[in-house]
């Protein structure tokens, strides 16, 4: 979504702000801008398109200052354009603001400002109203003016504001959109996300919801919604700045696919004691809590939701409790049955997906126990949960989620095992069997990655296809949804996933000699049924790429190609079966010369409805 960066110190702000904005490019954006107080006024420069377009209009002259704010915009209100880009100023540019989120009552405010103050709006955006509100309330105290302005605003917003008459400070506010403050020496920073800060600081403050922060070059003061100063723990960021770089891979996505063995290793082994007991770091759920639950919801969006589909099956099997999965944008509006016997599990890589956050709040309001599986430390979903289970996958930069998905699956298994063992639903032998199968996964994923050239060959054969279907049964059906999403979101090929048994109820009518079907057949107990489903689609002329465990060779007789994954117990196959699908999607998109890390129309974190 939108990216915010602010700098206040004794040096030039421009370079730090542009550096920070570049680190936020992965969030997806369509325009960029910067505001600096110059000669007693705020000068705003902004441009549609990539940051390099902005650099062309801020380089040549001595346009700079020791304080400033910058922004990368992902349009929600008003098309991408220079005038709709942020920052936005008030009438005389005595204040300027950058904003991430949506002001839901902006029309009402806009009309009031026009009627009562004769404000002439320049842009079509909701964000511009913030600048004018602050401008009319400003009487020399920026913090006071900002606090008054946010009282009029409804919606989700992270904002950063500067004023020409106070060119030594930035005021920022966080409500339902992320903000993090970087603690420097002789300077301070504010940003939407940690990568924007890493070049300059390692110590940060996470800004909580409804908090306001005032930054000067020597201080960062945080205030709660009642205006009381709050003390905040310093968080040390251990991520190496380069960890977010590509490290030699052509794309972040390929790098992150290859980081999966390490992500799985880190997410799993850090939680396993020598006796195989699981220490759910910081999870406060007790045996009584677990026995109290009579239902689990797993709610998420996109890839995270697909991890939930696998989670449903493994938690039901191992913890013997009914599990319902739902996409967050549906859950939040269907008045679901939730009470204090419900465990609500939110899965989110970014921890800032607005739909998932809203669904979490809905469940919390109805008394559910909230657990989240999140990759970004200190993100909103994490902070609003009773218990957080981090996927230690490291920063996931590519819009297409890969290592977050497989580490989310690991968390699903650990939660299932923890609950099942605590309830006595599974015996020691089965528990240890699954643990040992999980421990073997990093090496098995690495073994699949060694075959990437074979998968690249397949991609070269099929990249021109217009329709590619993914089919599977049981756990494979959940994985086929993920394989289909990976393909469509980076290659723009029409793709469709369906439970193989459902084909005969209509979809098989679409099969023809131009169709490619990726058939997942990793579940031993469903293997024969999958082979007959493959025969059905093949008899209608479709081409077949089979995914099966090593040794299950019958599938070769009914497939054009087969990708084998290492032998393992059925329950853990999703972590292996998804890897060839990720690679297939990647190499097909590469053949089609798509913008793999930043696909069109997509953002890494969808922080609006
Ligand atoms: C996955 O490849 C997509 N980028 C998208 O579906 C994503 O999984 C979804 O928006 C949820 O994001 P989250 O995990 O950060 O909540």
Question: Per CATH, what is the topology of the largest domain?
Answer: Glutamine Phosphoribosylpyrophosphate, subunit 1, domain 1
Number of strands: 25
Parts with pLDDT < 50 across at least 5 consecutive residues: none
Overall geometric form: globular
What would the average pLDDT be, to the nearest integer?
A: 93
The main sheet orders its strands as 3-2-4-1-10-9-11-15
Q: Major sheet, described briefly?
A: 8 strands, antiparallel
Under the CATH scheme, which architecture of the largest domain would be assigned? 4-Layer Sandwich
Q: Kindly report how far apart the N and C termini lie.
A: 11 Å
Domain unit count? 3
- The percent of residues in helical segments reads 25-40%
CATH superfamily of the largest domain: Aminohydrolase, N-terminal nucleophile (Ntn) domain
Residues in β-strands, percent: 15-25%
Bound molecules: 2-deoxy-2-amino glucitol-6-phosphate
- Helix- and strand-based class? alpha/beta
CATH class category of the largest domain: Alpha Beta
Specify Rg, calculated over alpha carbons: 25 Å
What are the key terms here?
24% strand, 35% helix, Rossmann fold, single chain, 609 residues, 7-stranded antiparallel β-sheet, globular, binds 2-deoxy-2-amino glucitol-6-phosphate, alpha/beta
Summarize the structure.
The protein is an alpha/beta fold and 609 residues long. It has 19 helices and 25 strands. The strands form 4 sheets. Strands 3-2-4-1-10-9-11-15 form an 8-stranded antiparallel sheet. A 7-stranded antiparallel sheet has the order 5-6-7-8-12-13-14. It has a 5-stranded parallel sheet with strand order 17-16-18-19-20, with helices on both faces.
């Amino acid at each position: 979504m939108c990216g915010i960066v602010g700098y206040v110190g004794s040096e030039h702000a421009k370079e730090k702000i542009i550096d920070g904005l570049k680190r936020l490019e992965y969030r997806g954006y369509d325009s960029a801008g910067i505001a600096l107080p110059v000669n007693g006024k705020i000068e705003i420069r902004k441009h549609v398109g990539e940051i390099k377009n902005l650099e062309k209009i801020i380089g040549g002259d001595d346009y700079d200052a020791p304080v400033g704010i910058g922004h990368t915009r992902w349009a929600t209100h008003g098309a991408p354009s220079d005038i709709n880009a942020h920052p936005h100023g008030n009438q005389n540019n005595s204040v300027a603001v950058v904003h991430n989120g949506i002001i839901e009552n902006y029309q009402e405010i806009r009309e009031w400002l026009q009627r009562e103050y004769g404000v002439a709006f320049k842009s079509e955006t909701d964000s511009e109203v913030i600048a004018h509100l602050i401008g009319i309330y400003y009487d020399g105290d920026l913090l006071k003016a900002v606090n008054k302005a946010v009282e009029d605003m409804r919606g989700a917003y992270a904002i950063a504001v500067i004023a020409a008459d106070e060119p030594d400070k930035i005021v920022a506010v966080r409500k339902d959109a992320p903000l993090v403050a970087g603690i420097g020496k002789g300077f301070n920073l504010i940003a939407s996300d940690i990568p924007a800060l890493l070049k300059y600081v390692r110590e940060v403050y996470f800004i909580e919801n409804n908090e306001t922060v005032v930054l000067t070059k020597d201080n960062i003061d945080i205030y709660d919604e009642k205006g009381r100063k709050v003390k905040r723990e310093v968080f040390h960021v251990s991520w190496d700045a380069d960890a977010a770089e590509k490290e030699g891979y052509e794309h972040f996505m390929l790098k992150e696919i290859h980081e999966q063995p390490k992500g799985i290793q880190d997410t799993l082994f850090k939680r396993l004691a020598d006796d195989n007991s699981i220490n759910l770091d910081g999870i406060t759920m007790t045996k009584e809590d677990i026995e109290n639950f009579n239902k689990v919801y797993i709610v998420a969006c996109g890839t995270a939701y697909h991890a939930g589909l696998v989670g449903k099956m493994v938690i039901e099997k191992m913890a013997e409790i009914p599990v319902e999965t739902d996409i967050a944008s549906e859950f939040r509006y269907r008045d679901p049955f939730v009470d204090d016997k419900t465990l609500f599990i939110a899965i989110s890589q970014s921890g800032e997906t607005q739909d998932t956050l809203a669904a979490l709040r809905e469940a919390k309001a109805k008394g559910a126990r909230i657990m989240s599986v999140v990759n970004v430390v200190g993100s909103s979903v994490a902070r609003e949960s009773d218990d957080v289970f981090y996927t230690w996958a490291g920063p996931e930069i590519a819009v297409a989620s890969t290592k977050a998905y497989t580490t989310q699956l690991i968390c699903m298994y650990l939660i299932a095992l923890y609950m099942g063992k605590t309830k006595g639903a599974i015996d020691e032998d089965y528990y240890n069997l699954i643990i040992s199968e999980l421990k073997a996964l990093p090496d098995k994923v690495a073994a699949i990655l060694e075959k990437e050239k074979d998968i690249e060959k397949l991609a070269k054969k099929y990249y021109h296809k217009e329709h590619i279907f993914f089919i599977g049964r049981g756990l494979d059906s959940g994985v086929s949804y993920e394989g289909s999403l990976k393909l469509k979101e980076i290659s723009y090929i029409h793709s469709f996933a369906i439970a193989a048994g459902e084909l005969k109820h209509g979809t098989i009518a679409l099969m023809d000699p131009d169709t490619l079907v990726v058939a997942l057949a990793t579940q031993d107990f469903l293997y024969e049924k999958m082979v007959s489903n493959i025969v059905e689609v093949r008899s209608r002329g479709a081409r077949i790429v089979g995914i099966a465990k090593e040794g299950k060779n019958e599938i070769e007789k009914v497939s054009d190609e087969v990708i084998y994954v290492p032998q393992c117990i059925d329950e853990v196959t999703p972590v292996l079966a998804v890897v060839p699908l990720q690679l297939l999607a990647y190499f097909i998109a590469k053949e089609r010369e798509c913008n793999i890390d930043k696909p069109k129309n997509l953002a890494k974190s969808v922080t609006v409805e």
